[in-house]
Q: What sequence folds into this?
C-alpha cells in the first residue's frame, strides 16, 4: 500500500497521543489509588460500590445506635443496681426492727435511716442520663418524673418506650417509663396481701402467706373474723367480694396454716375476740408508698401485734419491689448482652463491606505498576520508531 | 527543425513534470490536497517515406490522483467519528460530575440518614437536631448544584448547535462560490484540480458538523442535502441553516432550514452525525439524568414531608414540611391556538418514570406520548392519571393541533430546598402515646409503634382500650367506631385514627390502656425512627428502588452510556483512520516518490537539453561544412 508522507506524521502523532493518554490515566489511577476514575470506567462496579457504601453507612449508623443504646441501658442498669441495694438494706432494717427487744427509740432510729433511704430512692428514680434527660420519665424526659406530693409520690412521666434500630430489622427498647418499675409493684406476696385489722386488741399476728394452689385462686377479698368464747378461739372466713361466708366456727390453733381458696397464711399469737384479718388480692402500689407504709408501721403506736403484721407486710412488699427491680435489670441485661453480640456482628459486617468496597474501587498497585511499565515502554517505542521513520527521506541522499 | 523541436517538447514536458512535482511537494501538508500528475502523450508522428517519425511529447492534462468513492467514505466516517467524539466528550462531563465518591450525592444522602439516626438516639438533644437540619441543607445544596451543572451542560449543547450551524452556513457559502468557479473552469475542458480539492475539504468540514449527502451535477458542481433531503447547497445557490427555540420547549434549540423567510425545522431524528447529531443525542441522556435526579429529589421530599407532617415537633406542635420541591412542569407549545392551561400533580411516586410526556389534542381526543419509548395512550377527556402523574385541564379549552410538554420531575432537583431551619421543628415524636392505667392488675403493655401518613385529624383523640377478659377487649373513642369484643393475641397490632399500637403481655380483665395526645413527649423518637426507615424503603420504581438505589441506577446509566460511547468513538476513530489511509494511499503526497519524480524529470530535462545541444552541434557541423567551402 502506498503511504502518504502526511499519514506517517498523522498516525505517528495520533498513536503517541493515545499512548500518552493511557499513561496519564494510569498515573491518575495510581496517584488517586482509585481503580475507577469515573463511573464509565466500570459502570456496574460503580453502582455496586454506591450500594455497598450505603450499606456501610447503615452499618456504621447501627454501630452508633448500638453505642447510644448501650450507654442508655448501662446508665439505667447502674441506677437499678443501686436501687436494688437500697431496697435490700431497707428490707434488712425492717426485719431488724421486728426484733422484740427493740424499744420505740431504737425503732425511731431505724425510721430515720429509712426516711433517708426514701429520699435516696426518689433521687435514684429521678436519675438523669448524660444528656440531662430523665432516665425514667418515658417520653416526658424533660419533666421530673417522680415528685413528692405530701406523703405520696406522684408520677409525672408517661409509659413511652424509646426504641433504636440496633441491627437490620431489630428495634430494641432502650428506655422506658418509670411507672412500670417504680409505681406499679404488686403488694403483699404478689398475689394477695394480708393485713391485721386496725382495731385488733389481741396478740394475733398474720404473715404474708403464699399460694398453694394457683388453680383455686378466685381473686376475691376475704376477711377472717375471730371470736374467743370460753377460752376457745374460733374464726369465720368471709368472702367480702361475693358477700358470702366461706366457712364458720373453724377451730384456731396458733401458728398453724390456714388455707382459703388456694391461699395459705399463718396467724400466730392469740387473737382477741372480735379481731379481724383481711386477705385481699394484690394491687399495684408504688415503691415509695411501700417504704412509707413500713416507716408508718414502725412509727405507729399500735399494739405490737398489729405493728408486727404491718411490718411483715411491709417486708413482703419490699421483696416484691426487689423482684420488680431484678426483672427490670434482667431485661436491661439481656438487651446489653444482645448489644455485645450485635456489636461484634456489626464489626465483622463493616469489615466485610469495607473489603468489598476496597475490591470494587481500590487500585491493584501491582497490576497498575506493571501496566505503567508496559505503557512507558510502548510510548518510548512509538517515539523512537517515529523518530527513525521521520528521518528517512530520499531528499537526504540528494546532494 | 525536427530534432530541435522534439528536444524542446521534451524540455517542456520535463519542466511541467518538475513544476507539478514541486506543487506536490509544496502541498504535502495541505488538507484535502490530492497529488497531481502530468499526463504526457506523444505528438502526432510525421509520415515520411521511411515511416512515421515521432514528433516529441506533449502535455495532455494535469490530473489529480482521486477516488470519489474513497473520499465519500472518509466523509461518512468523519461524520460518525465527529459525532461520537463530541458525544463522548459531553457525556464525560456528566460522568465526571458523578465520579467523585466522597463528594457525590450518595454520601450526602447517607449523612442525612445518619443525622436522622442521631436524633433518634437522643431526640431532645438540640445538637443532634441541629446536625440533621444542617445535613438536610447540605443535601439540598447538593441537589441544586448537581442540577445547576447539568443545566449548564444543556446550555453548552445549545451553544454547540449554534456554533455548528454558523460553521455549516459559512462552509455552504464558500462551497456555493467554489461551485460557480468550478463550473466556469470546467467549461474549458480541463479539471480545476485545486478548486476541486478545496471543495472536498469544505465538504469534509461540513461532515464534521452533521451528516450530509453530496450529489454531483453534470456541469461539475455539487448539491448538498441535509436531513430528509432539504437542500443546503444547490450548485452556486445556498439556503441558510438556522437554530431556533423549540416551540415545544423554548429552553432548547432546534435545527431547521430557512426556506425564504420561513423556518422549517428538521423532523426529529432526521439530522444525525457530526457535532449537531452529538448535541441532539446528548440532550436525551442529559434530560434523562435530570429527570432521574429529580425523581430522587421529589420522592425523598415527598416521603420525608409526609412522615414529618404526621409527627410532633419538640414544641409539641404538629410537624411541618421538611423540604420543598417544584412539581411537574407543563410547557404549552408556542404554536398553540387554544386557551387551555393544564395542571399536573404527582399522585404516586412509585409509578413515576424518568421520561417526559407530550400531550397532543386533535380536536376530539388527547394523545399522550411517553417520550422515552414513544408509547401512546389516547383519552377522550381529562383528567387522567398516567405513570403516577395526574393530568388535568385547569382552565380554557384546547384547540385541535395544540400540544403540551409535561416534565414530571425535571425541575425537582433544581428547586429542592430545606424549609426547616429551627432544630426544634424536627418532628421526632409521634403526636399520640399509649399509657397503662396504674390500677391494672395484669402485665399487659401498649405502645404506639407507628403513625402513617396522611395525617388523620383524629390522631390525638383519646381512645380507651378496655379488656373485658384476658383475651377480649373493647375500643372506645372518637374516630374508632367503638368496636367491642375484639380478640386479643399477645403482640398484636391495632390501628385506629392513623396510629398503630402494639399490645403485648398478659392483661387482666378490667385493665385499661389509654391512647391520647403525647404532651411533653420530648423523649419520643417514634417518628424519627420512621424517618430513618425511609433510607432503605423501596419507594421508587414501583417499589423496587430506595432513593440511594435510584441514584446508583442513574450513575450506572450514565456510566454505561459514557463507556459505550467512548468505545464506539474509538471504533469510529479507527474506521476513520482506515478510510483516510485508503484515501491517502491514492491521493496523498509521498515525498520519497516526489524526490524520485524530481530526479526523473531533472534527468529528462538534462537529456532534452542534450538533444538540443546535439541539434545545435548538428547545425554547427552543417554550418562549418558550409563555411569551410
A:
Amino acid at each position: 500500500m502506498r503511504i502518504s508522507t502526511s499519514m506517517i506524521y498523522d498516525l505517528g502523532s495520533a498513536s503517541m497521543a493515545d499512548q500518552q493518554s493511557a499513561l496519564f490515566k494510569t498515573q491518575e489511577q495510581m496517584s488517586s489509588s482509585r481503580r475507577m476514575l469515573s463511573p464509565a470506567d466500570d459502570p456496574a462496579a460503580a453502582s455496586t460500590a454506591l450500594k455497598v457504601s450505603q450499606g456501610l453507612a447503615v452499618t456504621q449508623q447501627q454501630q452508633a445506635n448500638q453505642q447510644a443504646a448501650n450507654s442508655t441501658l448501662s446508665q439505667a442498669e447502674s441506677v437499678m443496681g443501686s436501687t436494688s441495694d437500697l431496697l435490700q438494706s431497707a428490707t434488712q432494717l425492717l426485719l431488724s426492727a421486728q426484733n422484740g427487744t427493740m424499744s420505740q427509740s431504737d425503732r425511731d432510729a431505724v425510721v430515720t435511716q429509712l426516711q433517708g433511704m426514701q429520699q435516696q430512692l426518689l433521687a435514684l428514680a429521678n436519675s438523669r442520663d448524660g444528656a440531662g434527660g430523665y432516665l425514667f420519665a418515658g417520653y416526658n424526659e424533660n419533666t421530673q418524673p417522680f415528685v413528692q406530693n405530701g406523703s405520696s409520690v406522684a408520677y409525672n412521666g408517661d409509659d413511652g418506650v424509646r426504641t433504636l434500630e440496633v441491627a437490620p430489622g431489630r428495634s430494641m427498647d432502650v428506655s422506658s417509663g418509670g411507672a412500670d418499675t417504680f409505681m406499679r409493684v404488686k403488694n403483699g406476696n404478689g398475689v394477695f396481701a394480708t393485713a391485721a385489722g386496725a382495731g385488733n386488741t389481741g396478740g394475733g399476728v398474720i404473715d404474708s402467706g403464699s399460694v398453694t394452689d394457683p388453680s383455686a385462686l378466685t381473686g376475691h377479698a376475704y376477711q377472717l373474723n375471730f371470736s374467743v368464747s370460753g377460752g376457745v378461739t374460733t374464726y369465720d372466713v368471709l368472702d367480702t367480694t361475693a358477700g358470702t361466708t366461706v366457712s364458720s366456727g373453724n377451730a384456731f390453733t396458733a401458728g398453724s396454716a390456714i388455707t382459703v381458696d388456694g391461699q395459705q397464711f399463718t396467724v400466730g399469737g392469740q387473737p382477741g375476740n372480735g379481731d379481724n384479718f383481711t386477705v385481699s388480692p394484690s394491687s399495684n402500689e408504688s415503691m415509695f408508698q411501700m417504704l412509707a407504709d413500713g416507716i408508718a408501721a414502725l412509727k405507729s403506736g399500735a399494739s405490737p401485734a398489729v405493728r408486727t403484721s404491718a411490718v411483715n407486710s411491709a417486708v413482703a412488699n419490699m421483696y416484691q419491689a426487689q423482684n420488680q427491680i431484678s426483672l427490670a435489670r434482667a431485661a436491661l441485661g439481656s438487651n446489653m448482652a444482645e448489644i455485645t453480640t450485635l456489636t461484634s456482628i456489626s464489626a465483622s459486617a463493616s469489615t466485610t463491606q469495607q473489603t468489598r468496597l476496597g475490591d470494587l474501587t481500590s487500585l491493584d498497585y501491582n497490576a497498575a505498576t506493571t501496566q505503567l511499565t508496559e505503557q512507558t515502554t510502548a510510548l518510548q517505542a512509538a517515539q523512537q520508531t517515529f523518530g527513525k521513520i521521520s528521518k528517512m527521506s530520499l531528499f537526504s541522499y540528494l546532494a | 527543425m525536427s530534432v530541435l523541436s522534439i528536444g524542446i517538447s521534451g524540455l517542456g514536458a520535463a519542466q511541467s513534470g518538475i513544476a507539478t512535482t514541486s506543487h506536490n511537494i509544496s502541498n504535502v501538508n495541505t488538507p484535502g490536497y490530492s497529488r497531481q500528475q502530468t499526463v504526457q502523450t506523444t505528438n502526432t508522428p510525421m509520415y515520411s517515406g521511411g515511416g512515421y517519425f515521432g514528433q516529441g511529447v506533449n502535455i495532455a492534462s494535469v490530473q489529480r490522483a482521486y477516488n470519489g468513492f474513497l473520499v465519500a467514505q472518509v466523509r461518512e466516517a468523519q461524520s460518525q467519528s465527529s459525532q461520537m467524539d463530541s458525544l463522548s466528550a459531553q457525556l464525560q462531563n456528566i460522568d465526571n460530575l458523578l465520579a467523585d465518591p466522597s463528594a457525590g450525592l450518595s454520601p450526602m444522602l447517607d449523612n442525612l440518614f445518619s443525622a436522622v439516626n442521631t436524633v433518634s438516639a437522643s431526640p431532645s438533644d438540640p445538637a443532634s437536631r441541629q446536625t440533621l437540619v444542617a445535613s438536610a441543607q447540605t443535601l439540598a445544596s447538593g441537589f441544586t448544584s448537581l442540577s445547576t451543572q447539568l443545566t449548564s451542560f444543556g446550555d453548552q449543547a445549545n451553544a454547540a448547535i449554534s456554533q455548528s450551524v454558523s460553521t455549516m452556513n459559512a462552509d455552504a457559502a464558500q462551497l456555493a462560490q467554489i461551485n460557480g468557479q468550478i463550473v466556469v473552469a470546467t467549461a474549458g475542458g480541463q479539471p480545476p484540480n485545486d478548486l476541486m480539492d478545496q471543495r472536498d475539504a469544505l465538504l469534509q468540514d461540513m461532515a464534521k458538523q452533521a451528516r450530509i449527502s453530496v450529489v454531483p451535477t453534470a456541469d461539475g458542481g455539487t448539491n448538498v442535502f441535509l436531513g430528509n433531503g432539504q437542500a443546503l447547497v444547490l450548485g452556486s445557490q445556498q439556503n441558510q441553516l438556522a437554530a431556533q427555540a423549540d416551540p415545544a420547549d423554548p429552553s432548547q434549540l432546534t435545527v431547521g432550514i430557512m426556506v425564504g423567510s420561513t423556518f422549517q425545522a428538521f423532523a426529529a431524528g432526521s439530522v444525525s452525525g457530526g457535532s449537531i447529531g452529538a448535541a441532539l443525542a446528548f440532550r436525551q441522556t442529559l434530560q434523562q439524568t435530570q429527570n432521574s435526579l429529580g425523581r430522587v429529589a421529589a420522592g425523598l421530599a415527598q416521603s420525608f414531608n409526609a412522615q414529618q407532617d404526621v409527627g410532633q415537633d419538640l414544641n409539641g406542635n404538629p410537624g411541618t414540611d421538611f423540604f420543598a420541591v417544584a412539581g411537574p412542569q407543563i410547557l404549552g407549545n408556542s404554536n398553540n391556538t387554544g386557551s387551555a392551561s393544564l395542571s399536573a400533580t404527582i399522585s404516586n411516586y412509585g409509578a413515576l418514570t424518568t421520561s417526559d410526556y407530550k400531550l397532543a389534542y386533535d380536536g376530539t381526543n388527547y394523545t399522550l406520548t411517553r417520550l422515552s419509548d414513544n408509547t401512546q395512550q389516547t383519552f377522550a377527556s381529562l383528567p387522567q392519571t398516567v405513570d403516577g402523574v395526574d393530568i388535568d385541564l385547569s382552565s380554557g379549552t384546547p384547540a385541535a393541533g395544540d400540544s403540551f410538554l409535561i416534565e414530571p420531575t425535571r425541575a425537582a432537583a433544581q428547586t429542592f430546598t430545606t424549609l426547616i431551619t429551627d432544630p426544634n421543628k424536627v418532628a421526632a415524636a409521634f403526636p399520640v402515646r399509649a399509657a397503662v392505667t396504674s390500677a391494672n392488675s395484669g402485665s399487659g403493655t401498649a405502645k404506639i409503634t407507628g403513625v402513617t401518613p396522611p395525617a388523620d385529624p383524629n390522631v390525638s383523640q383519646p381512645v380507651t382500650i378496655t379488656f373485658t377478659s384476658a383475651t377480649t377487649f373493647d375500643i372506645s373513642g372518637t374516630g374508632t367506631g367503638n368496636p367491642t369484643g375484639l380478640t386479643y393475641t399477645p403482640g398484636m397490632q391495632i390501628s385506629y385514627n392513623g396510629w398503630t399500637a402494639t399490645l403485648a403481655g398478659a392483661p387482666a380483665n378490667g385493665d385499661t390502656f389509654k391512647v391520647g395526645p403525647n404532651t411533653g413527649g420530648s423523649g419520643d423518637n417514634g417518628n424519627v425512627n420512621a424517618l430513618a426507615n425511609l433510607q432503605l424503603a423501596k419507594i421508587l420504581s414501583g417499589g423496587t428502588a430506595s432513593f440511594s438505589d435510584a441514584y446508583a441506577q442513574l450513575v450506572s446509566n450514565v456510566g454505561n452510556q459514557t463507556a459505550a460511547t467512548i468505545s464506539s468513538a474509538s471504533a469510529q476513530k479507527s474506521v476513520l483512520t482506515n478510510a483516510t489511509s485508503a484515501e491517502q494511499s491514492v491521493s496523498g503526497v509521498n515525498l520519497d516518490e516526489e524526490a524520485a519524480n524530481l530526479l526523473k524529470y531533472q534527468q529528462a530535462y538534462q537529456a532534452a537539453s542534450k538533444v538540443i545541444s546535439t541539434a545545435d552541434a548538428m547545425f554547427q557541423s552543417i554550418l562549418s561544412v558550409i563555411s569551410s567551402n
